[in-house]
């Protein structure tokens, strides 16, 4: 992406806009599941979550994978002095390839819906899979339009489209569900509306991008290009870019094919098994919210890492990699520990009951390894080192599958939560070891870990003391939503304040570090105020 043509200032503004859009999309994606679960119950939530990973797989691969791969390839052509005609020829070759791919995936999902539903042991899911298959037909246009805009450092259309398509999707899912529930009690019919919302959201994104494209018309010209290397590069690069995002979806696919089926096989009654899977899936929006900070870090710090990695002089990317690791671990631990401490109250407040709170406590521990995986996978993209990380992620998926098969018959959904956590911890440790080998021998000092443990301990003590005091005030009341709201509000506020204050007082990160982190300016000011000389 040529800074000479567009100016680094404009590029950074565009990148910031894209970062903000990605965060808004992540937050919306996590938040809408809470009212949706409240509307349809655990059984209805199970239905949606069974088909969600099939649909989202293609959405993520298109937006996070192919779009970025296309933008890189087109920017590379421009960087080496290629013509607009060559860029159009490459774009057209990729578009035809994606069209063929989307038709193949559409056929597999639409005509294979009954077989996939049978593998999940729930024939009624076939209708939802058929509805969701139409999402694959959006792949070629969405990927090409977003990729072209990004290649030209014209980030606004991409950012607006991402937020617009997600907003439309959430609105249709929630409003459509409310309307449908007046006419039907079928969780499968309501589930179809949720899937339809995703399809319409993607179509809305395409329409918006086309409106922007009208202002940027380019002449159509023919030029022959060698197709195979282009298709090979765009495929491999798209998978590499979206690998960390696809990892969670692959875990969810494993859950879709194993949890419900194995619970029923183990003797659990069908409706109860659906509800258990629905309760298990409550953990997903909680984890998504927990990794929002790690996502923002990977989007904001990683471009610096990629830039510094190519620098011939100076310390290179090392300080930024260390900061990325320390900050992602710091916020990952804070989010996971906070959710573990308030889980019964947060569970009741958000999802009506405190069912399986201990299982969900283990589920949200995933936030810690995921925070490291997301940031390090993004950093390794800057180094173009993705073969070994890809192998680590494939092994973690295999561990997840084996864990589910072995543990679910004995521990129900707790076994699935353990399997996910073990798989992700393996991937995180493997990435840390690999990063130490290729880039930074030491990611953090022993003092950093000690300070992090102190901050975590203070948070635990503060929250547990607050629970004891609240139990005295409310005389250990029955868990209701009103009570859960009071408990959650007070405990989250006290826990966050105590953790942040200890982190600032001990200077776990320096003020300079905070200024590099998204939204870290206020934390830097608070840290300076706490440590001022009196």
Would you give an account of this structure?
With 534 residues, the chain is mostly helical. Helix content is 82%, strand content 0%. It is built from 22 helices and no strands. It has helices at 3-6, 8-31, 33-79, 84-111, 113-119, 126-132, 139-151, 156-180, 187-213, 227-265, 270-280, 283-290, 292-309, 318-351, 357-364, 367-382, 387-411, 413-438, 446-473, 481-505, 511-516, 521-530. Helix 3 (33-79) packs across helix 11 (270-280). It is globular, with a radius of gyration of 24 Å. The model is unreliable at 1-8 (pLDDT under 50).
Helix content: over 70%
* Structural class assignment: mainly alpha
- Please trace the helix and strand order, writing H or E for each element: HHHHHHHHHHHHHHHHHHHHHH
Please state the overall shape, judged from the principal axes of the Cα atoms: globular
Count the DSSP helices.
22
Report strand %. under 5%
Largest sheet: none
Secondary structure topology:
Blueprint: H1 3-6, H2 8-31, H3 33-79, H4 84-111, H5 113-119, H6 126-132, H7 139-151, H8 156-180, H9 187-213, H10 227-265, H11 270-280, H12 283-290, H13 292-309, H14 318-351, H15 357-364, H16 367-382, H17 387-411, H18 413-438, H19 446-473, H20 481-505, H21 511-516, H22 521-530
Helix pairs in contact: 2-8, 2-12, 2-13, 3-4, 3-7, 3-8, 3-9, 3-10, 3-11, 4-7, 4-10, 5-6, 6-9, 7-9, 8-9, 10-11, 10-16, 10-17, 13-14, 13-16, 14-15, 14-16, 14-19, 14-20, 15-18, 16-18, 17-18, 19-20, 20-22
